[in-house]
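> run fold Coproporphyrinogen dehydrogenase HemZ
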Amino acid sequence: MKVLRFDLDRPELEYYFHELYQAFDPGVKNILSGAAAGVLSQKSLKNQVILTLEWENGKALTRAYQFNNSDEPLENSIYKGFLYDFLCEYFDKQLEWGTLTGIKPVKMVQKYVRLGWSPSQIRNRFRDYYRVSSDRADLLMRIAKKQAEFISGELDCGAQHLISLYVGIPLCPSKCDYCSFVSTIVDKKGENLQQYFDHLLIEIQKTGEILKTCDLRIDTLYIGGGTPTVLSASQLDALMSALEEYFDLSHLREYTLEAGRPETINREKLEVAKAHGVERICLNPQSMNPQTLLSVGRPWEAGLIEKQVTLIKSFGFKTLNMDLIVGLGNETPDDFLRSLETVITLGPENITIHNLSIKKGSKIKDQNGIVVKEGYGEDFYQAVKNRLCSEDFEPYYLYRLKYTRDNSENIGYAKPGHEGIYNILMMAECQSTIGIGAGATGNLYDPVTDNIAKVFTVKDVKTYNERFEEIVEKKVKAYQFFYDE
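> ok
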């Protein structure tokens, strides 16, 4: 791993410089002192910021950037803008997302809208201040406008009685190489699954009893994972029955069940889901290329995805979501586009395009470190977007992660009326979410301050099972305290 030392007049800039440098040159370790193969320095002199980057036996560059003389210190984002211009010259490339490194850029648009900014003012802010390309600025505006249909009422005082509920099943039949979630493989006898399931039902009861005293109603319900459909049909029925008993589900706008691994789906489980009012099923092939799936440790069986889509559609669920990941294995752009065509022909109403992110905890990261391959290029991403739009899919939510090809984005596309409301609310952070189970973080929204308070929990099933009473008591008290306040 290459090591780059930051020599900064303002050491507090380290985080901002690290985030942006990684977008240009992923996988480089930065330090503030000691021996390193390269040095990036920042110095301020009167009304100038001077940046220098030099690697041993490599390219060196120094540039000075002028700013209006002021007694007030510059905002960190101003320095980040100077660094962006500098790195663009050094690496001879620009980033579609400019200086933005956060995961929720649509939320920034929504903030400006609430402040009364005009569309042209917002676009100019992203293009001129954050160096975002015109294409991505327009995409953000388009998605923010779409999301306004679903979140405008969330800011009303009465709407604060509505919350979302996330139930986590962090267990899988096996773990894919790219997966960074703290998911547990179900043992052969299913004992760890059964113990977790028993505890989960108790947490549902305890949480539901507290929230009912607070006059809260569930707006969206998402059962995610892991792979929730590792549960048997009888377990799934018991889980959904418990949710109905202890929570007010009479105001649900959306009920989602992740069924990501096709080998875990059968008719009995789908019958249970349908009987309990599930409207949205997520089936995630990730790729339709068998060589790709086998190379990343994801089981593949010829024709299984197509068979399961037919089965799911026979039940008449409102929405089928299917996910694809850009950058798996050694796929070429043509490989991915063939997967996309196959998925389109299967007729889902919702398609999410993820970009492979090299994350801590994944087998790929453990084996190879942060090695981000060359991207497919902007023409490829435009081709994906245009192909989906030609089939009446519209982008409705977006988020970004680190260490992805081309520093790109993840976009959810949906046909009108099939948008994932839970996804929209999570990214907008304008509604509380109660998390039940291991790894299910609670997000408690305060409309007065427009802030989110986190209720963290343990991520792994083993710890959850061993410390169950302590963990659940702590979570329930946090929820009760927040709503009592």
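The mean pLDDT is 91.
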